[in-house]
Structures are given as structure tokens and as C-alpha cells.
Specification:
The protein is mainly beta and about 350 residues long. The protein is about 0% helix and about 55% strand. The chain has one domain: 7 Propeller (Methylamine Dehydrogenase, Chain H). It has a 5-stranded antiparallel beta sheet with strand order 18-19-20-21-27, with no helix packed on it. A 4-stranded antiparallel beta sheet has the order 1-31-30-29, with no helix packed on it. The longest helix is centred in the N-terminal third of the chain and has 8 residues. The radius of gyration is 19 Å and the shape is globular. The N terminus is likely disordered.
Length: about 350
């Protein structure tokens, strides 16, 4: 088990010892669909394929799956939806089904900015190919999604979604491939991003609030962890750390009721990742991206912080090295073990390119 508490120690004090020399990060375009990509996720959707696969959603409703094969990458469009797919998540929801499940959220019909219903869709491979099942419709756009153990009172994982209905929905697999809404939680504003962590799920809200929803005997209850001014958009969490960002360009970390600003970008941030991105260091690292097109890590070197020549302004002694760049706005960031490349980062956005960062 990874020592997640070491993450903040690395952020606040730098590394305890000099790491072994590593190869620099390499960027590779592994899929180009030529249309804005909204979200991406990494997980084991094809058990027969080595490593994890990458799912990506697009503004015109495409859902594509990308995997490593024969020294390169292949992709397949597994769904063409009538509405824009904003974000996606991969995780184990149905214990009777091989591999993980893919869930996308967005608009049931039309684009993100058009009026109309939101939708939550489950995608999995059947005997005759990929099948899409509607799990939930709402009166407005669904924007955030996460899969994980948000409810310690029940075994297995939950699906947590939310958006512009000002409600979070917790769904559970009920058996025989069926899902049901276990709980709904009212929020003070639209939900832009969701992560599983702390004691339940974490919501990044459009009113600048970071909210934890926690399971109690009577249902889920919200607790505000942070209250800002500008919209929050992305969040990642462990059992004791939350990394979050949004329109202000601030990347922040929450731990033990305290919030630290790690960096300030000149544009909106749209990526918050916590993962073991450096095997030579204890604990986990962070990563972020945004509308300026840069992908940056949160890590130290030789006990000090690394500055990047194209980096953001320094806040409170923190800075992040840049590992890559796209010439369009980047909209989402995810991490996972892709093929034989080990732990990687994947980014997507307005250019329509899915970019893999590996060592």
C-alpha cells in the first residue's frame, strides 16, 4: 500500500534524499480525432490487453477507446452519442462482469451550452460489440463523474455523478446488470468535478466551494472543506489529501483542514491528478494542466523545488516543472499504467489530440 501521507511531506519539505537519475518525460500523440475532447480516463476495460486502456470523450458525442498494441497505439470509436460527452470514468461497478466499466456524462441531446437534459451512460462490451446503457437522466447537464468506494457501509464501489441540477447522485449496482440511485445530495451550486477520497466523495463546485459528501446512517451529508470565489473544475483525492483547481488558475492542496496554494497559472486549470508518477520517491505526486496548454508535475528534486522556464508564478515556495505542451487548450488530465509504458499521464483538449506522457 502506498504511503499517501508522504505526498504532503514531499510538497512541504521536498525530497528526503536524492533520487536516481531518470529519463525525461516524452510526449506522444496517440489519437487524433480532429474534434474537441472533453474528458479522458485510464482503466482496465479489455482484460486480454496488457496494461490499461484510455477512454476519451468528444464534443460531438464520440466515445473512443485507445490501447497499446504491437509497439504503437490503436483506437476504436465505441459509441456515437446524440449529445456532447463531457467527462468519463473507469472503474469496477459490476462484480459479475469481466473488466471494469466505462461511464460517460454530458448532454442527452445537443451541446454543452444548449438547454436540455443531462445523461449518465454505461458502456461495456457485449457479445456483439460495445453497448451503451442509460443509467440516469436529469433536467440539466451532468458534468462530473467518479467511481470508487464512496460508501463504507456497503461493499464494492459506487458511481457518483453531478452537474447543473445542483445535486450529486450516488448510484450502486443492484445485481443482474441493474443500477439504482442510492442517494441524492443537494448542493449550493453546479458540480464541475468529482473524486472519491477522504471519507466519501469530493465535489468541485461552480461557486468555488470544495465539498465532501460523507455517508451516515441517514444518508449522505455535505461538508464544506474550502470556500473560494472562482469556479472550481477538477479534483483528485486520497484518504487524506485533496488536490483541486479551477478558473482562478490556482492549484491547491487540502489536508487536515488546511489549504496550501501550490501554483498560480495565467489561465484556467483543468487537471488535478494524484498518482505514483515517480517510483524513485516515496508516496505520490501531483500533476495539472489547463487552458495554457502546459502539463506540469508537483514534485521536488534534491530537496528543493524545480522551476520551469515556462512555468507559472511561484506561490509560497512551490513550483511545478513543465513536462509537455499542446498548442490548444487542454481540458482534462488522467493517470494510469498504459501498455508497457508503466505509469503515464494522458491529456486531451480543444486540439482533438490525446497525448501520452511517459518515461
Amino acid at each position: 500500500m502506498r504511503n499517501y501521507t508522504a505526498f504532503l511531506a514531499l510538497l512541504l519539505t521536498g525530497c528526503l534524499s536524492s533520487p536516481a537519475k531518470q529519463e525525461p518525460w516524452q510526449a506522444q500523440v496517440i489519437c487524433d480525432l480532429g474534434v474537441k475532447m472533453g474528458g479522458c480516463a485510464v482503466g482496465d476495460l479489455l482484460p486480454e490487453v496488457l496494461g490499461d486502456e484510455i477512454a476519451v470523450t468528444t464534443g460531438d458525442g464520440l466515445v473512443a477507446l485507445v490501447w497499446a498494441e504491437a509497439g504503437g497505439f490503436k483506437h476504436e470509436v465505441i459509441a456515437a452519442l446524440p449529445g456532447e460527452a463531457i467527462q468519463c470514468a473507469i472503474g469496477e461497478l459490476d462484480p459479475t462482469s469481466p473488466g471494469a466499466e466505462l461511464v460517460t456524462v454530458g448532454k442527452r441531446l445537443g451541446g454543452e451550452d444548449e438547454p436540455g437534459q443531462g445523461v449518465v451512460l454505461l458502456h461495456r462490451r457485449g457479445k456483439s460489440g460495445w453497448e451503451s446503457t442509460e443509467l440516469l437522466t436529469t433536467e440539466a447537464l451532468i458534468h462530473g463523474v467518479a467511481i470508487g468506494d464512496a460508501d463504507p457501509l456497503h461493499a464494492g464501489n459506487e458511481l457518483v455523478v453531478g452537474g447543473f441540477t445542483n445535486r450529486a447522485f450516488v448510484l450502486r449496482h443492484m445485481g443482474d446488470g441493474l443500477f439504482d440511485v442510492e442517494a441524492t445530495v443537494d448542493t449550493s451550486a453546479p458540480i464541475k468535478g468529482i473524486a472519491i477520497g477522504l471519507r466519501g466523495a469530493i465535489l468541485a463546485q461552480d461557486d468555488g466551494r470544495l465539498v465532501e459528501i460523507v455517508r451516515h446512517s441517514g444518508g449522505f451529508e455535505p461538508r464544506t472543506l474550502f470556500e473560494g470565489i472562482d469556479s472550481l473544475a477538477r479534483v483528485s483525492a486520497t484518504r487524506d489529501v485533496v488536490l483541486f483547481c479551477g478558473n482562478s488558475g490556482h492549484l491547491r492542496v487540502w489536508r487536515k483542514e488546511n489549504v496550501e496554494t501550490l501554483l498560480t497559472s495565467g489561465d484556467r486549470l483543468r487537471g488535478a491528478v494524484l498518482a505514483d508518477l515517480d517510483p524513485n520517491r516515496p508516496g505520490i505526486e501531483g500533476a495539472t494542466t489547463g487552458y495554457d496548454g502546459f502539463v506540469r508535475l508537483v514534485c521536488g528534486q534534491n530537496g528543493t523545488w524545480v522551476s520551469s522556464s515556462a512555468g507559472p508564478s511561484l506561490e509560497g515556495g512551490f513550483n511545478c516543472p513543465t513536462i509537455g505542451h499542446d498548442d490548444g487548450r487542454l481540458h482534462h488530465l488522467a493517470a494510469g499504467e498504459v501498455g508497457e509504458s508503466g505509469m503515464c499521464l494522458v491529456a486531451c483538449g480543444y486540439s482533438g489530440r490525446l497525448i501520452l506522457f511517459s518515461r
